[in-house]
Design a protein that fits this description.
Distance between the termini: 128 Å
Number of strands: 0
Shape: rod-shaped
Mean pLDDT: 81
Order of helices and strands: HHH
Largest sheet: none
Number of helices: 3
Strand content: under 5%
């Protein structure tokens, strides 16, 4: 019974090793950085800040306004 259990465990480990991919250290780091939620959130926050900056800078553009008025009084005496 012990030999059967040991054989099953070894067989399962061998199957998982056969299906494994070889990943280099630099590939593993690149994958980790791509899938890191903290980095994704930080990148999104940077994008939001840039969009907000562009919206807020629109108020700093020069504006030209004009106003004119006239009054006319005619008194019949």
């Amino acid at each position: 019974m012990k030999h059967t259990n040991l054989f099953c465990i070894i067989a399962l480990l061998a199957v998982s090793v056969v299906g494994a991919q070889v990943v280099t250290t630099s590939d593993a780091i690149a994958l980790a950085l791509e899938n890191n939620y903290g980095i994704k959130i930080a990148n999104n926050n940077v994008e939001v800040a840039e969009n907000n900056k562009n919206v807020l800078n629109s108020g700093f553009l020069p504006t030209l306004t004009g106003n004119a008025g006239a009054t006319f009084n005619r008194d019949n005496i």
